[in-house]
Amino acid sequence: MFSDCCRLLGRGSMFVFSHRQFTQLLDVDHSWKADLLLDIGAGDGAVTEVMDRHFRSVHVTEISPIMRRVLAGKGYEVLDAHKWMEKKELYDVISCLNVLDRCDCPLALLENMKNSLKIGTGRLILAMVLPVKQYVESGK
Ligand SMILES: C[S@@+](CC[C@H](N)C(=O)[O-])C[C@H]1O[C@@H](n2cnc3c(N)ncnc32)[C@H](O)[C@@H]1O
């Protein structure tokens, strides 16, 4: 896959937000800590690393086998990209950064993320490039 090649060559890491911008987004301070983060389509985990210090556990998903290995090497729990919702885990924060336009079932993904947030307190962080132009490397 094109994205695998980029990441392997160290050319694919993206800047989405700084640590300061992340805390501003959530309206928390530097010492804020929660239980569980799920980063959907985490890529090489560069953005996951900006968020991970605030969580006791970090789960990630990826459809790229190469990126799954990279993410496991960073110590994250890598869940099956198509079955993670079956665990019925509830998350404090779910991040889905530049993935909705890369996956073949964006509406189902949105629904699954909504159903997997802690009721009342769970927060979803979405990043999307606008205008939306679907570019699916793997899937239908
Ligand atoms: C543009 S990259 C974004 C990576 C990372 N979130 C970031 O912001 O740097 C999109 C990633 O989503 C992954 N992806 C696409 N569809 C997915 C799905 N259904 N579940 C999990 N990951 C997916 C791709 O393999 C790719 O690594």
Automatic annotation (TrEMBL):
It holds the Pfam family DREV. SUPFAM superfamilies: S-adenosyl-L-methionine-dependent methyltransferases. This is Methyltransferase-like protein 9.
